[in-house]
Amino acid sequence: MTTDIKPLLATSLRTHTCDNLRKSNIGETVTLSGWVHRRRDHGGLIFIDLRDRYGLTQLVFDPKTHPKTHHIAQEIRSEWTLQATGKVRARAEGMTNTKLETGEIEIEVSSFQPYSMAKTPPFSICDENIEANDDIRSTYRFLDLRRGNLIANQTMRFKTTTAIREFFTQKDFLEIETPILTKSTPEGARDYVVPSRIHPGTFYALPQSPQLFKQLLMIGGFDRYYQIARCFRDEDLRADRQPEFTQLDLEMSFVQEEDVIRIMEEMFSFVFKKCLNLDIQIPFKRMTHSQCMEYYGSDRPDLRYDLQLVRVDEIIKRSSFSALKEQIGKGGIVKALPIPNGAKFSRKEIDEFTTFVGKFGLNGLAWMKMSNDKLTSSIVKFFDDDLQKELIANTNVNEGDLILFAAASEATVNQALDHLRRHIAEKMDLIDENRWEFLWVYDFPLFETDKDTGKPTSVHHPFTMPNEKDISSLDSEPLKVRAKAYDIVLNGFEIGGGSIRIHREDLQRKVFEILDLSSDQIDQKFGFFIRALQYGTPPHGGIALGIDRLVMLLCKTNSIKDVICFPKTQRASDIMMDCPSAIAQNQLDELNIMTK
Amino acid sequence: MTTDIKPLLATSLRTHTCDNLRKSNIGETVTLSGWVHRRRDHGGLIFIDLRDRYGLTQLVFDPKTHPKTHHIAQEIRSEWTLQATGKVRARAEGMTNTKLETGEIEIEVSSFQPYSMAKTPPFSICDENIEANDDIRSTYRFLDLRRGNLIANQTMRFKTTTAIREFFTQKDFLEIETPILTKSTPEGARDYVVPSRIHPGTFYALPQSPQLFKQLLMIGGFDRYYQIARCFRDEDLRADRQPEFTQLDLEMSFVQEEDVIRIMEEMFSFVFKKCLNLDIQIPFKRMTHSQCMEYYGSDRPDLRYDLQLVRVDEIIKRSSFSALKEQIGKGGIVKALPIPNGAKFSRKEIDEFTTFVGKFGLNGLAWMKMSNDKLTSSIVKFFDDDLQKELIANTNVNEGDLILFAAASEATVNQALDHLRRHIAEKMDLIDENRWEFLWVYDFPLFETDKDTGKPTSVHHPFTMPNEKDISSLDSEPLKVRAKAYDIVLNGFEIGGGSIRIHREDLQRKVFEILDLSSDQIDQKFGFFIRALQYGTPPHGGIALGIDRLVMLLCKTNSIKDVICFPKTQRASDIMMDCPSAIAQNQLDELNIMTK
């Protein structure tokens, strides 16, 4: 193999990139290519910061040494692309820029030629903060991309996928491509479909995940598979959802939960070291689904701060506080949220919390403060001394702390206090942005009750293995069956989830039946998969990880659009391209479809 | 980071994989998991070859040492999956298998448990040659995948993409994901489209390539981009085409042809070293498009053998061979195909060649043989001595050689002799399967005449930069303008092609106009792109490489289906899954479409 003797990124149009000249290059004649980032006309001298993906280098056009070149350079404007040749020289004393890698040198330009001119951009490329609205930025995405943070984010994204690939290659996984034109699978969301021209009246579906393909690969003997896979869901978009998204999809044969969890922890450790040069601690914390709900009211708690919920039904029952007791009587629960140093909150602030939880269906909050070693508030009178002591002990409050109480149905209390907990953490600045708190959540229920039909539906998906200890309850108490499933939570975001899968045909059929699929429906939708299970299926399991969200966290940005080069809007459009758009009648005719 | 102390692929269900036990492990108690590959009942002893992705290990069930285990093992059948625990021991003398990595040892099984049973597969997993027809193999693709060559091919595919990624990472490229839900772009083929639910009556298109996205990334300042990208074309399939395919897509800023060519040569060198441990010679050969057509009648000649065509119009004109002269009179041409050692072909064989070329529209072949230092055949009489000498000199024939002559239109002669050349190379066994002959073809015309409309159409695509020397001819003689385009050919397969792109708005508009697009059409289809060109576009260029085909060549297989885990049929179906298939009426309703 030949090797470059020139600098790494030299091409026939440049000898160096805009980041790599230093004092040691002084005296060399170099050629740079890039964009005009800033242009300053200082009376005689013209200075240009030339920009490329890698950095900035200062060009100087001097009327004394190169009058003709200087004269033409007066025409140059921002965002032109050009090639400039000249000698590297030291910047004048007092003119060095320590913030810039190339800040000690400049190029005394002897000749240049523009490649292309540029209209005035609709927003500034060089300012850190951007004043343009989202529509303008989307329309001119090709300019928005030039801004430093998008290039840095894409570099982080590439580092992340590169590290993931490197890790799994070491572990003997094969990355395998699965089809994009496939059959509708029941992941719970709406499919994007593609009409077939050759088979009129039929459609392909874009995959919501490669779930069945990866299980077929395990049946096919591939043992260890992963893929950085594009997935598609035609859902009404929320802030952090895109119609197409990227997931790390992974499956292993001859494994149990512990094997998948262990390899993923190693992977995160590897990736965080490579991407952020951070040593994260493994193994991660673990919590059952019911513990999560109990202590945090959520199955994806942010553990960067404490603020645990405490169930206080038993204390309330023995109090004379009828407003809360009533809720228990109606089948509800009462939880306390003790807030260290929360006694400083004013009446008005506590009223704000009450308004805040109202958005989640909670009708009010009761509160007590710890002051002079005792609880104070208008409701303390409903609790005798012993009960107060018990409350203090259970909520573990100290001088200056606040306790908030919420009573309603379990779901409402949990949802409201989960949001309130996060709201208060932000308000009290309790979140250490430099902490990375991973958590495995396990022992999910296999089924939950569908709100619309009242029937059992899969919490994850119908291929999830039930806990062996609960299999005998599948018929009698399906809602009590635990799944061999695990979610991975990072800083309060669910970034992935997986499970051990069913590898026995009879068990898979049983689960389909509990999901109320008839034999015919099973055969029609999953016939091929049931058939595949009949020919020697290894025990297997895996996980899927949201790459967009993981990279978003690694980049410390709060929008997924900051880590995708060409994102869609909330209405699933690309404004720049005008997409989706109408297609020609002959295309529709060939596809044997009509629009309404 | 924690490290494994157990063998690399150990999990909670196995201590080793089926490839890694050796004599040094004798005496160890191990647990293996895998498939029953072969089962032999030798009177007392039962032998099982246990298989996983990595290899085979022999299990022995001995009725003397483990009577109960042996008894149950009698039930085991092919393709069951099971876990077996036992002691590693040396195979008996004379029973070692030198072909197998684990051939010196076996496991004396003390306990085992099946994970799953298996029906009898519809075809054998262990035989190298498979007797089942394509439909059965497609229906049971999950079983076909278990066969060794498909796993080996996927391993080669993974090695290839891993090497490509490693190479471009070293060269500071970023792999960037571009959208799959996008706008129809004019790559010349039919688009797959996706109806939008949110915007009734509109459609996304699946990308035929990320062409415009990668150019937008260059405009966005990303400098060096690549992607192993899924692409889609709704074409009537030929043997080696799939509705979705994978390409290495690459683009660089501030480059000329030479830069792209050089980095690709380095990449091939790196990939062939990593994948096949071969040192291929770079730089590759180069030939202009017109030289290719002249010498090989094709723009993707297989250079593993010689057999060059020779244009002999001038000699024929001076002969009295009226049959061929007539063709020249009608605007045709005459080419000779000299075949070393071809004089041995019988009359019958030459007749076969004539029939063969008939399929490509050629009405006949004339021929001469070199025998006793002179040309012989029934047509030699039409050539005087000087002409014969000239013919011998031009075709460079020697004793025992054959010359075939074809006369017709240039296109017909080229097409027929290209096929005949390949046919004869196979027949004469001239192809060295261990040779890798790369060739760059360049100086393509920018436009060709569309057969249907008679108007100029792009040979590559409308974003290809014309050769600067020919730009002045764009209006007057567009068909004579050469493109800054280059194709890469390997062993007679076009495996990729690329170009320097237009970076000037005015030139891009001009090309669109030559392609007969009105201003309105330009704005409607390419408005966003023309706009992007107005804000400072760097000179840029790139290439796209067919990964499926490259891997097919690396695997020395002749079907693209051997390197894709879940390929579609010629009718673009997945027989295993029954895809494409009908979708529910409510899905159609939500999408605002009807089927005819």
Q: Averaged pLDDT of chain A, please?
A: 94
Q: Which stretches of chain A are poorly predicted, pLDDT < 50 over at least 5 residues?
A: 1-7
Q: Strands of the biggest beta sheet of chain A: in what spatial order? A: 6-9-10-22-21-20-17-11
Shape of chain A: globular
Distance between the termini of chain A: 60 Å
- Rg of chain A to the nearest angstrom? 31 Å
Describe this structure in words.
The structure is a homodimer of 596-residue chains. Chain A contains 16 helices and 23 strands. Chain A has 596 residues and is an alpha+beta fold. In chain A, the strands form five sheets. In chain A, strands 6-9-10-22-21-20-17-11 form an eight-stranded mixed β-sheet, with helices on both faces. A five-stranded mixed barrel of chain A has the order 1-2-3-5-4. In chain A, strands 12-13-16-14-15 form a five-stranded antiparallel β-sheet. Chain A starts with 28 loop residues before the first strand and ends with a strand. Chains A and B meet through strand 1, helix 3, helix 4, strand 6 and strand 7 of A and strand 1, helix 3, helix 4, strand 6 and strand 7 of B. Strand 23 of chain A pairs antiparallel with strand 23 of chain B, so a sheet runs across the interface.
Salient structural properties:
596 residues, 23% strand, five-stranded mixed barrel, eight-stranded mixed β-sheet, globular, homodimer, disordered N terminus, alpha+beta
